[in-house]
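User: Structure please.
Assistant: Input sequence and predicted structure:
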Amino acid sequence: MQRIALMVFRLFFKAIYYFIRIWWCSIRKEISYEEGFRCAKTATIAANKAGRVTIEAHGLENLPKNDGFILFPNHQGLFDGLVFLESCPRPFTFVMKKEAADIILLKQVRKALGALVIDREDLRQSMKVIQTMTQEVGEGRNFLIFPEGTRSRQKNHTLEFKGGTFKSAVKAKCPIVPCALIDSYLPFDGGGTAPVTVKIFYMKPLYYEEYKNMKTNQIAQEVKRRIDEVIAVNTSESSWCD
C-alpha cells in the first residue's frame, strides 16, 4: 500500500489529529452522524490530496433534493469509499461486510457515521440489517451500498449486481441513485504513487414510481445497465464489456 504510506508520511502529525477526531466522534453518542460525516470528509480530502489523488465529480445536481436516498455504485477497489466521502455534499452512512468491520480506521469511521454491518452468511442478521436500513432511510438518512457485494478486481468492468441489495430501497420506497466509478481501483489497487484521477458520476435517480412494479433482480439489472453505459462512454477501453 505505497499510496497509503505516502498519505500518512505527507500528513504526519495531521494524520494522528484526524484519527483522534474520528475516534472521538465514534465514541460520543451525542455526536450526530452528520457531524461524524463532516469530520471524516475533512480527513479524506486532506488524505487524497496528500496521496496525489484527484477526484473528478460529475452529476451532483442529480442528487435528490430531499434526504432519504440510497447510492448504488459499482465497486472497484479499497479507495471507493474515499471517493464518496470527498465528493458527496450530502451526509451518508453505509453498509459494510463484517469481515471489514474491525479494521483500524474503518472501524472508527463506521462508528462515527453509524454504519451498519452485515453478515452475508447469516440470513436472519441480514434481514435485520435490511429492516434497520429501511427504517433509517425512511427517517431521512442517506446510505451507500455496493450491489456487487465485493470488489470486481476487473478495473472498469462490473460484476453482476445482487438483487437483494435493493430490498431496503423497495421497502422504503426511496430514490435509487446509480453511481459510476471510473479508475477508482488505481490509487490503492493499482500500485505506485504517481498522480491519478478518479471519476465519479452521480446519475439520475430511479424514483419509486419508476421501479415499483419491478422485481429486485430487475432493478439490479437496470442499475447495472445504466452504470455500464456511463463507464463505456467515459473510458477508452474498447473491451469494457467483454
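Confidence is low (pLDDT under 50) at residues 238-242.
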